[in-house]
Amino acid sequence: MNNSFISDDKIHEECGVFGEYSLSGENVSHDIYYGLIALQHRGQEAAGIAVSDTTGPMGNLRLKKDMGLVNEVFAAEDLESLHGDIGVGHVRYSTTGGSTRENAQPIAMNYIKGSLALVHNGNIVNASDLKTKQMYRGLAHYTTSDTEVLAYEIIGERVESATIEEAIKKAASKLRGGYAVIVMSPRKMVGVRDPFGIKPLMLGRKKNTYILASESAAIRSVGGEIIRDVEPGEIITITKDGVSSDSSLCTKTRAHCIFEYIYFARNDSVMDGIEIHDARVKAGRALARESAVDADIVVGVPDSGLAAAEGYALESGIPFALAFHKNSYIGRSFIKPTDEERRTAVHMKLSVLRHVVEGKRIVIIDDSIVRGTTMKQLIEMLREAGAKEVHVRISSPPFLYPCYYGTDVPTSSQLIASEHSSEEVRERVGADSLQYLRIEDFKTMVGDLPLCTACFSNNYPV
Fold first, then answer.
1. What tens digit of pLDDT does each residue of 217-228 get?
2. Is 15 marked active-site?
3. Considering only CA atoms, which of 453, 329, 345, 331 is closest in space to residue 403?
């Protein structure tokens, strides 16, 4: 997990997944590595890759995973040893299961009919019920994560199923929650997305190689082209004969996670037909229309608030300015065990460009306020640099409720907006004014795309 001070006060996505199958027999490990680099923003705690050779003997699966960033886990010799024409990869930020190497993914298992490796983004909310039934059937005893529960569920169904995709379909029909899963068997790669579309999954292609990934940016990072989003509830199977689809678990009810568009997804990704950067600019424009203020400059918190700040400036006519210099080399191991060291970390991670803000009335834009500690420190830095006024605008509504679908929204007691009124939050962070995006403005961002807004509205789809 990234221990930078900004990361401590952000909502975290749980994971990113990437899978590749070369129908012409080329090695896929290098592409998976670069795909995971492109998905690093979705999880910085652990990384892993599993590969297999479809022309070799059954059960020739090779795996490496460990705690750390992708480029810390894998050296060049690791990628050479991970030789295969089919493989899956994963980056993790844990919301269920402990922060240990054992809970890093892929999950790889051998069983009576072969082997599989599985990567998973999301959270299975009925995992404990499934685990109880598995224990009764003698399948699992010491599983610690919902991903392992899912793997055992697939294996249990595989014993009585003709194909791996049939087993995955039977297992998926029992799942409740938000998930995107890629399963690699010795000869096939199967992707499945939850019926609500809470978690993203995309299908792409690079010459004679098919790709499944959490985001379009990861597919493009390896030179691939986007085919389409995997439909909510759809099961995609890739074999040596190409791609097939099973839509029998699809439903009409959709609930795409709004926070993909607010913060999680990379700015250059396209998700369910929505350009991420464009959606964030539109959010900033909506903020400017609903919460105008007299000011001299608009600034964004790097990097999460920059696109919305661009939109606010465009709509309001107030000039956009870069007020912060970000030090990108403060990494995961930057530990801050005391309050004094945390305060020092603020100035090491970000510094204010004094000549930009001195004597200015400032609108500062960020995607969210979670605990409030980050915004408070940023406002203090701006005032120390001579800012006359600091007006806060947030490109999401107030966080009021936890998320159960694989997003690290803490309990309501840890959400500052759940415990305090907007005026109290303004006073606590030290702003001259504070306004949030309205839930009804989501339509401006993403049009008619059906959304999960549970963390703002308490309306849970599952």
1. 999 999 999 999
2. yes
3. 453
Structure tokens at 344: 């020092």
Instruction: Give 373-439 as a DSSP string.
Output: HHHHHHHHHHHHTT-SEEEEEESSPPP-S---SSB----GGG-HHHHS-HHHHHHHHT-SEEEE--G
Contact 85, 21 (CB under 8 A): yes
CA–CA distance, 156 with 255 (Å, rounded to integer)? 29
CA torsion 90-93-96-99 (nearest 10°) is: 100
Residues 4 and 372: their CA atoms lie apart, in Å, by 15
Per DSSP, the chain holds a count of helices (H) and strands (E) of 18, 23
Share of the chain above pLDDT 70, in %: 88
Instruction: Tokens for 332, please give them.
Output: 């995961």
Give the integer Cα–Cα distance in Å for 162 and 452. Answer: 36
Question: Checking phi first, is residue 249 left (phi over 0); if not, alpha (psi -120 to 50) or beta?
Answer: alpha
Cα of 266 vs its chain's centroid, Å: 9
DSSP code of residue 231: P
Structure confidence by residue, pLDDT tens digits, 2-20? 333 344 566 655 699 999 9
Between 263 and 406, the higher pLDDT residue? 263
- 329: its two tokens: 């080399």
Long-range contacts of 273-282 (CB under 8 A, 24+ apart): 273/229, 273/449, 274/445, 274/446, 274/447, 274/449, 277/307, 279/445, 279/446, 280/307, 280/308, 280/311, 280/367, 280/395, 280/445, 281/307, 281/308, 281/310, 281/311, 281/314, 282/311, 282/444, 282/445
How large is the C-alpha radius of gyration of the chain? 23
Please identify which of the residues 15, 403, 452, 455 carries the catalytic annotation.
15
